[in-house]
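Attaching the record inline, Q. Sequence:
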Amino acid sequence: MAQLKKAILSAQTLDELYVLMEDYSYLEFIQIYNQLMPKQQAAIDAICDRDNQKQMAAIHALKTATSAYYPLTSAMTGTVESAKSR
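Structure, as predicted:
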């Protein structure tokens, strides 16, 4: 478990943390996380928040870009516009 703790603390991205959850298990990961000091947990949380925000921004950008070409996509997301009104 010391190896997992070291790996968690050295992770720089959310993807690295996901790989650790797969390599060990979610339960083992959470057990180690719960043993971390609050400052260490906050650092892990910051990585998760940062990378999740990047993913959401990328998804939004993709939806925005594709809605101009695929009006049905806009309709499915609740922003119905006809192609003529653009």
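The CA atoms of residues 74 and 80 lie 6 Å apart. The first helix runs from residue 2 to 10.

More tomorrow.
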